[in-house]
Design brief:
Shape of chain A: globular
Distance between the termini of chain A: 20 Å
Low-confidence stretches of chain B: 71-87
Number of helices of chain B: 14
Shape of chain B: elongated
Mean pLDDT of chain B: 83
Number of strands of chain A: 10
Radius of gyration of chain B: 33 Å
Number of helices of chain A: 8
Oligomer: heterodimer
Mean pLDDT of chain A: 90
Number of domains of chain B: 2
Structural class of chain B: alpha+beta
């Protein structure tokens, strides 16, 4: 029972098919079972075409599974309506993308405020919280800058701050260092470790780099739409 | 999400693409400014026409002899014309006589307060050596002169004696005195003035100078303007050798009398008493009130027609807005995907883009209103009317701008709202 309460991500026999009912019907995920506990730092690795991104989209509630059950932080996601999914993405998930996906017309501060705006947080609190998280990722001096005035590493730090603002249940990072050089990528990984260790955040890292995956607590290997291996990494707490 | 946030977002987006925003707004600006300009100019014209007609007296009734429109008339060679009898001219018996007027005054003693009589003696040139001034010669009775409400600058007005004895005395305008007597009104009074009209010279003694009031209808330059030269009614009639009666006259109704119904009563009375056996002519009466309303009707029909054309340009502008919104949404596909990943609902994405489209249209609308008012001010100034703001036009424009924004923004905004977040995030 205690274990059940501690489980944040609970995927049961997830199948994802595209072009359902058409001659070119394609099954990408063939029944994934995956449980992630609260406070875990998990990495999902696999070559391209292994179904990583599809799995991430399902975990991130951007897409629905064709079959199977998905419970996120004790909310049944599979049966939720579009509007409820928006709310789940807004409050329970913090996205960090490979290409940052910051809105280029506005400042770092306004970018960080964005999820709180959709959550209906008041203007004053929004600014305070945005400043707090920007400071946490070491970006407080550049918060009035627009994304095109920031380096790749700085952009990624802003997007981590953005992922944190609504205090989500999980942080879902899709190749967060993929577009960065190794030194900058290292710094970004350090931020994730800091969030995990100091704030106890649950982090799911999707990567094709075994080296980065090794740092995390648990490594899940995906191949051709199936989980083919699961082992502990060096970052495992126990 | 708050509307205010969306408006800020929209303004930000527009500032990022200034040139595009201005070009998009241009259609709306042109449409709105022409609607405003046309409505304001129309308003100015109709209100100054109305007011100058009211100056002439809304309660005045014009009574005239007119041809019967559905009479059968035999012409000299015996042919019979059906319908409008073009061939007949007025004989002595067709005119309104003094006896008829006396009888009418008795009959309508409560509703008719004055009968204004005038006789045109043509228009020509008043001359003094090489100096000239254009004049219209009008013989008037005392009531007519009083109704004109002239401001006398020098001398006296026409008296009972002048009228009774058909004296060759006249009132002239200050403009005439300026031209012929170098503005010396005291010299003008008592002088003789020569008027060349209908190939003849007539000579009159000036007894008074009145102040000429610019009528809104005249657009000629100062020098060419024809000012009235008033003389006693009988003087003019003698000059014209007309002794039989009047073809047209004006009746001032007593206060509180409905001029429209009096028109009908007067027509019936005259036609039953005097024109029953007249094959070609009858009396028709019309009040200034009905003329004013038909004039305003006509003007508003014209402005509505032109506004419809301007409305079409608004429609084209709206299509431009839709086009640009579609482009903008395609460009911002990744942004839309990001927003959805961060928790934006379909509704908030839709609202964001509809707000953007409304902001474009409203901004265009406001610029259009300002431009339209400037255009209207310039146009009314050039035409010589007092500028009058069309509040209805402004309300219409603002409402229409918002409607265009919603109508032409809905389709693109809905397209954005329905985007699949995964595909939107993957969009290059």
């Amino acid at each position: 029972m205690k274990e059940k309460q501690n489980t944040i991500i609970d995927l049961r026999h997830i199948v994802k098919r595209f072009y359902v009912g058409q001659p070119n019907e394609l099954e990408i995920l063939h029944g994934i079972d995956l449980q992630v506990k609260k406070g875990e730092f998990v990495s999902i690795v696999g070559a391209s075409g292994s179904g990583k991104t599809t799995l991430m989209n399902i975990i991130g509630v951007l897409d629905r599974p064709t079959e199977g059950e998905y419970t996120l932080d004790s909310v049944d996601v599979a049966g939720a309506k579009d509007k409820e999914l928006s709310g789940i993405r807004n409050r329970k998930i913090g996205f960090v993308f490979q290409t940052y996906n910051l809105i280029s017309r506005t400042t770092a501060l306004r970018n960080v405020e964005l999820p709180m705006m959709y959550a209906g947080v008041g203007k004053k609190e929004r600014q305070e919280r945005a400043k707090y998280y920007l400071q946490m990722v070491g970006m407080s001096e550049r918060m009035t800058h627009r994304p095109d005035e920031l380096s790749g590493g700085q952009k990624q730090r802003v997007s981590i701050a953005r992922a944190m603002t609504n205090d989500p249940s999980i942080i879902l990072a899709d190749e967060p260092t993929g577009a960065l050089d190794s030194v900058t990528g290292r710094k970004i990984m350090d931020i994730f470790h800091k969030l995990h260790e100091e704030q106890g955040k649950t982090i799911v890292l999707i990567t094709h780099s075994n080296e980065l995956a090794e740092e995390t607590g648990r490594i899940i290997t995906l191949k051709d739409g199936c989980i083919i291996g699961e082992r502990k990494g060096s970052g495992a707490l126990c | 999400m708050l509307i205010g946030e969306n408006i800020m977002l929209a303004l930000n987006g527009l500032l990022a693409n200034k040139m595009r925003a201005i070009l998009t707004m241009l259609g709306i600006i042109i449409g709105i400014s022409s609607v405003i300009a046309i409505m304001s100019v129309g308003n100015s014209i109709s209100s100054s026409v109305t007011s100058s007609m009211e100056d002439m007296g809304v309660n005045n009734i014009t009574l005239g002899v007119s041809q019967k429109s559905t009479s059968e008339t035999a012409t000299a060679d015996g042919r019979v014309f059906m319908g409008f009898s073009r061939g007949s001219t007025m004989d002595d018996g067709d005119y309104i006589t003094d006896e008829m007027l006396d009888a009418m005054k008795e009959e309508f003693v409560d509703s008719v307060s004055e009968v204004l009589l005038s006789e045109s003696a043509g228009s020509g040139t008043a001359e003094d050596g090489s100096l000239t001034a254009n004049v219209t010669l009008t013989g008037v009775n005392a009531a007519y002169l009083e109704n004109e409400d002239l401001t006398l600058i020098s001398g006296r007005t026409l008296t009972e004696t002048d009228q009774a004895n058909a004296k060759r005395v006249v009132l002239v305008s200050d403009k005439l005195a300026d031209s012929l007597f170098d503005g010396n009104y005291d010299v003008a009074v008592g002088s003789e003035v020569q008027v060349y009209v209908s190939n003849r010279y007539y000579s009159y003694a000036i007894v008074g100078v009145y102040e000429y009031e610019d009528s809104s209808f005249t657009t000629e330059s100062d020098n060419d303007v024809y000012t009235s030269l008033y003389m006693p009614l009988e003087t003019a009639r003698n000059q014209n050798h007309s002794t039989v009666g009047y073809s047209q006259l004006t009746i001032v109704t007593a206060s509180g009398v409905d001029s429209a119904s009096l028109c009908t009563e007067l027509e019936n009375w005259f036609n039953n008493s005097y024109y029953r056996n007249n094959d070609s002519f009858e009396i028709s009466a019309s009040s200034m009130e009905s003329m004013v309303s038909s004039m305003t009707d006509m003007l508003s029909t014209v402005s509505i027609a032109i506004s419809v054309i301007a409305g079409i340009s608004l429609l084209v502008g709206g299509i431009g807005v839709m086009n640009i919104m579609l482009v903008s949404i395609t460009e911002r596909t990744r942004e839309i995907g990001t927003r959805k990943a961060l928790g934006a609902t379909n509704g908030s994405i839709r609202l964001q883009f509809i707000t953007e489209s409304i902001v474009i249209c409203l901004l265009g609308g406001f610029i259009g209103i300002v431009l339209g008012l400037i255009l209207a001010a310039v146009a009314t100034n050039a035409l010589g009317y007092a500028a009058k703001l069309s509040v209805g036009g402004i309300v219409f424009s603002v409402t229409f701008s918002i409607l265009i924004g919603v109508f032409f923004g809905y389709y693109p905004a809905n397209k954005a709202a329905k985007m699949n977040p995964i595909e939107a995030l993957r969009y290059e």
